[in-house]
Amino acid sequence: MKIALVHDYIKEYGGAERVLKTLSSLFPEAPIYTAFRVKNSTADKEFKGKEIVESSLSPILKIWKLYSPLRFLIPIIWGRMDLTKYDLVITSCSWYITRGFKVGKNTKVIAYCHTPPRWLYGYETSVGFTKYWPVKIYAAIVGHFMRIYDFNTAQKINFWIANSKNVSDRIWKYYRKEAVVIYPPIETEEIKKTVKGIQKKDFYLIVSRLVGAKGIEYAVNIAQKLKINLKIVGESHGLSNIQDSLQKTNQNNIEYLGLVTDPEKYKLMAEARAFLAFARDEDFGMTVVEAQAAGTPVIAFNGGGFRESVINGKTGILVNEISEKSLQEAIEKIEKTKWNREEIINHTKKFSKERFIKEIKKFIIEVSR
């Protein structure tokens, strides 16, 4: 089969891009079609040597961060892409919709959905610009037409895969489409090898894209009040300014590390007393599973995809509210509990990269018959 991959854009390297990288390794001859590609960005470095085809509008989308305010051009961006020569198209889709491209009469399209666009359906997003009334009016007008486009293009997808049960429910809610759940690929074996013999240290850890919807500012404020040592790893995404505020933070117990390599990240995860994840409605949350694969318990908000990846009391603690009191209680439980490192690690096998590859291959074979 002639196969093509489609992805939002190539810029930051996060969970969605890790899925794309695994898909690209499975189908090394498949070109990657995308809205735009920022050369030498963290994501671009991961796809060196791959054939990447940008949209015709990519030059203007790459000016500063115009891809966000110019999202009303999404129908044109994808509508101009001609994928009619391919037998199978796999689209890795989330906030840039990433559907509506031209396909052939016999082309089958699989959507691996990280989430329906959060900004279209009232979920917390990276930057709360809608608090300003001109932006709120703009968002309401653009959002109305984009929801129609989002729904209509969703009906043309042949098969849906969701990255979690949480997202599968959203796909049904907004598109009325059934989706098979295939959890994202986690490097569980690689993590296990990397962290062997590493001892715990006195700090807590956050690894995340530095955006508003991840609860990072809550964590920083609470860590300052409780005087716990907190390390933060990640890079800014879109129009978020959280990275700037973190770099200005002058607190002895808060350390912003920026981007680190995967081995360094896994080492930090293994050393941490616990991994913190406070997004209120996370789509899935790959770093939460990575932390558990490193043998570290998680303190996570009791919502979204975290409910699928954290076993309360066994591999971490789920909190019902993000507050100083609830975090203090969770930290006390973390300190008092004798966590079974092997039990935490073994729990993550169901999210392994090997399992992802096996399930994706099986799915493609079944739908291609």
UniProtKB/TrEMBL annotation:
Residues 190-350 form the Glycosyl transferase family domain. It comes from the Bacteria. Transmembrane segments: none annotated. Gene3D superfamilies: Glycogen Phosphorylase B. InterPro entries: Glyco_trans_1, Glyco_trans_4-like_N, Glycosyltransferase_grp1. Keywords: Transferase. PANTHER family: SULFOQUINOVOSYL TRANSFERASE SQD2. This is Mannosyl transferase.
